[in-house]
Amino acid sequence: MKHTAWACAVVGYCALNLSGCVLGPDFKTPNPPLAPHWAATPSEPGHSAAVETPVDTQWWQRFGDAQLSALVGEAQRNNFDLQRAASRLEQSLALRRQITADTLPAVDAGLDYSRSRNSRHGLNDPSGRSGKQAFNLWKGGLGFSWEADLWGRVKRSVEAADASVRMAEEDRHGVQLLVIQQTAQHYIQLRGTQQALAVVEQNLNIARRTLALTQLQVQEGVATDLQVSEAAAQVAEMQARLAPLQQSSAQLINALSLLLGREPRALQAQLATPAQVPSYQAPVPIGLPSELAQRRPDIRRAEAQLHAATAAIGVAKADFYPRITLSGSLGLQAMQLSDLGSWGARSFAFGPGLSVPLFEGGRLKGALQLQEGRQQEAGIGYQQTVLRAWHEVDDALVAYQASQRRRDSLAQAVRHSQRALDSVHQQYAQGTVDFLNVMTVQNALLANEAAWVDSTVAVSLSLVDVYAALGGGWEAGSVNARR
Fold first, then answer.
1. Keyword set for this entry (predicted)?
2. So what's the architecture of 22-105+151-321+363-477 in CATH?
């Protein structure tokens, strides 16, 4: 008995000491191929230029629009996609807790009662009654088992689970960034649509005054019915432009309502009143290129995915080696309930178990090759994600500068068109030009004003794209994962 106990103790001691061996490659954080400085983008006087100062995590506040800030805050609280991402993170944490449990002994307790009768002609009756009578059997006790992590299989499994949790965290951060981006985009587009609607209504009023003037000139014999028809057609054509803009405005309000987890038209009263397109004129802080990998959720997720794939190689390698499991039980067994607490009713068992894979038909080798292939794919995916992020930032910065130049040029075109329309109206009232000139100039003004509104929206949208490409915004409402 003593020799058996000593043998078990020696096996347990060896298992504990060998558990420090961990197979498989150790993960090393990759160095992303990023340039030390952003590409220089030419800036003209009066334009917002990119500067390498820390990125503002609440960049939407820079627009100075309280309505936009309130919508972004509500979207982060109530958006259903964000709630689903948070639920997936909780699921990932629960899975990690399951895997972590393998590092500790499993202990269970049991209490059992049975009444039975054995066969007279079968095996020996443990009750000693030769199968002539039924008997009671009472059992109770504790049992435990623990697998010695000789080759780091459990440790690598926990490491992979930790990386999977980080992947779920970054998925949530990515959804949060997307929700903020879409909320800002829809709001900016809504204000641009409302401003475009105001431009059309303003031109419609001008067209109506021109129609009234033409009708008056017909009465005076200066104009013809053809000119009246042309003026009326101009009014009708501008009225026709209102319906699509009104439709777009209603749909954008509904899109914002959906992002905020609210029913259709829930924001109608709140957003129906027109307002200016949010804009930002100061220098744009974009941080350092070396910080991009720490800010972009997709890069962080790709890194975590590579980490999980690397740890899985260690799990696959550990499956080639023996497993030692320590198990035991301590309990009581008696045929009478009154005897269950006596010293003679005690029972115990303790000992190690050894499992050695001898022949698996190539299954283990195939599993290892699979994990190595997944790690290679994850490494390529990481490099591709970083490169794509770099392109997105560069494209967004170029678009931001180009949209500002287009806006400035269109602003000049609008000013010239307005002066031309004032002049042609005076000449038309004096009878020195015909109505075709008025229509041509007014259509040009309407086109330039519509294009200018579109360019103003494009400037703000491109700035949103800049911050989204930089990965700024999700830090404001991130949730610390509970380990």
1. Cell outer membrane, Lipoprotein, Membrane, Palmitate, Transmembrane, Transmembrane beta strand
2. Up-down Bundle (1.20)
For 20-47, write each residue's pLDDT tens digit.
Answer: 588 999 999 888 877 777 765 666 766 8
Domain ranges of the chain: 22-105+151-321+363-477
Q: Is 451 helix (H, G, I), strand (E, B) or coil?
A: helix
**Tokens (6 digits) for 369:** 């090759």
Residues 350, 352, 354, CA angle at the centre, nearest 5°? 155
- Residue 361: alpha-carbon gap to chain centroid: 42
Q: pTM here?
A: 0.85
Counts for the chain of helices (H) and strands (E), in that order: 11, 6
112: helix, coil or strand? Answer: strand
Q: Are strands 346-355 and 323-334 parallel, antiparallel or unpaired?
A: antiparallel
CB–CB of 461/402 below 8 Å?
no
Read off the pLDDT of residues 45-99 as tens digits, 9 standing for 90 and up. 668 878 888 888 899 999 999 999 999 999 999 999 999 999 999 999 999 999 9
Radius of gyration of the chain from Cα atoms? 38
Place of tokens 């075109």: 413
